[in-house]
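Protocol step 4 of 6: structure prediction from sequence.
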Amino acid sequence: MEKRELDGLYPMLSVEEARERVLSRIRPLEPETVPITEALGRVTAEDVAAAYDIPPHANTAMDGYAVRAADTMKASPEHPARLRVIADLAAGYVSDKEVSPGTAIRIMTGAPIPPGTDAVVRFEWTRRNGDWVEITTPVSVGQEVRPAGEDVRTGETVIPRGIVLRPQEIGMLAALGRREVVVTRRPRVGILATGDELVEIDAPLAPGKIRNANTYSNAAQVKKHGGIPVLLGIARDREGEIAKKLQEGLQQGVDLLLVSGGVSVGDFDVVKKVLAAEGRIDFWRVRMKPGKPLAFGYLEFNGREVPVIGMPGNPVSVMVSFEIFARAAILTLLGARDLEPFSVQATLADGVPEKDERRHYVRVRLEDRDGDFIAHPTGDQGSGILSSMVKADGLAIIPEDWDRVEAGARVRVILLR
């Protein structure tokens, strides 16, 4: 097919249009139950509600003496309130004694508030004298008392569906008495690199050959964002070989296929042809740099549609395309609610001398200068310069409608660290 025909059939899309088309074909996977010790980084597939108050009883926030606030109203260093200490109470125990007027209980942080008391006096506001304690500072009702349910109320949704579980959520699940949690199954992501020039990373480098870095950078990105990489190896620039490798991935139960190489206009870029022949191709060009030739479609297997993202072959293009499209696709498969990457505003230290109508993603190193981020481009921005990604803290976004970029421009930077 001639380029003019391709242009008419598959017009170039904006990043937003392309991303919307990708995500419209993807649905969250089915749930599964896992122990909370294995749930870090997983996405909740249920709302987690509290079955009881946390804390379950009123308790003291400080070491001190549990008292009736009324007994301390006139206390001062010169004229302390003098109370008889009738018991000691440590955290984890309850008192079988009730505090009556003129008495107090020595209490440790976290211990339940004893019957008859309504406040706690800190140790530093007291003087102990045998079985008696002198209170030098008055306290009010409720002072240093943590009420029942102060943290969580019975029936409250504490962890909603679609949340990526962090250590703090794991701790909360434990506090709620949950040994297990329902999460979305992790997607299996097939990763295929294409090209006659590729050899495996431990193979000798013959003339004209390069090692297959894309498979391993993509695999690491898949793991980072919660997927399970399924390595499908290298396919030569032959339609039959690429189709065979993709079928192998489908037979291994992958939920998403990532293919690097073979999606531009050249005679040997055959991934588009395979996708069109074996399934469907939705689009193949995006108004971005790097990553303009990016194909998306799906293959049918056992009654289901498996989405395929075909990325360029250059290593930077592959990684940037993943961050913009595949990352969101994996998070959608996981049922995550927040698909946006972390980003910061920064000031460009250097201008960008060449700028076309595409959205540019410039690799930058970030410097924190008096609370403001300064973004330094990491050198040559060619799509084959993988070292520019190694040096990068983020991707500075240069909008499509900017015809030039001067030093000092404010930009949004997608964080890679």
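Step 5 (inspection) to follow. The chain has a mean pLDDT of 94.
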